[in-house]
Amino acid sequence: MIQRRIRHEPIAYITGHKEFFGIEFYVDPRVIIPRPETELLVEQALELANRRFPRSCISTDIGTGCGAIAIALASNLTQAKVYATDISASALEVAAINCQRHGVTGQVQLLQGDLLDPIPEPVHLVVANLPYIRDSEIAELSAESKLFEPMIALAGGEDGLEWIRKLLSQAGDKMSQDGAILIEIGYEQGVAVASLATEVFPEAAIRIVPDLSGHDRVVIIDDVYR
């Protein structure tokens, strides 16, 4: 184990687990390691779901990886249905392990496909932590990330917004009338993502939520068809 760590392998991969939102998850190199910053995304999604859809909520976790967001939502919204998508079949294998471990296989449906494409019905909440690192910033990542985490889950294209832009273009046909989209972003991307959202959903209420450090972290696109 010490030799693996000396070679910069992340501790979460060595031990096979990572805590997120008070829940222990199995992780391995098929998925990125959940970050504490993403807990804000879950907090905002839960607040919206409890306030707007208290009796029944259909939610999504786009790019689910190990299933952390989907399982955190399902564990706290016992009446909710959660679709969890990923383009990677191997990532979904890890998510399935975690769904079984936490007893949410009846709530969380795992679907392989490109972003929202496999979602079979209109949803109330689209929740997404997509790759948002610019191509030019990849070289600056830690050795732990560059050498061990799946690059498909990190690289966001030339401006870091490639997958966010694609998600927004798909969302129109997948949302309920009173639905909302919540997206985790890089700390300098708030204005750019809000502008993209306005182009696609000009009538929506858009706000940027900062993290505990005061950096832009979550964009919420609410009442997309108001």
Biggest pleated sheet: 7 strands, mixed
Class from secondary-structure proportions: alpha/beta
Helix content: 25-40%
* N-to-C span: 54 Å
CATH fold field value: Rossmann fold
CATH architecture: 3-Layer(aba) Sandwich
Measured on Cα atoms, how large is the radius of gyration? 17 Å
CATH superfamily label: Vaccinia Virus protein VP39
Overall body shape: globular
Q: What's the domain count?
A: 1
CATH level-1 class: Alpha Beta
List keywords for this structure.
alpha/beta; globular; seven-stranded mixed sheet; single chain; 8 helices; Rossmann fold; 226 residues
Give an overview of the whole structure.
32% of the residues lie in helices and 23% in strands. With 226 residues, the protein is an alpha/beta fold. Helix 4 (68-76) links the parallel strand 3 (58-62) and strand 4. The longest helix is centred in the N-terminal third of the chain and has 14 residues, at 39-52. The radius of gyration is 17 Å and the shape is globular.
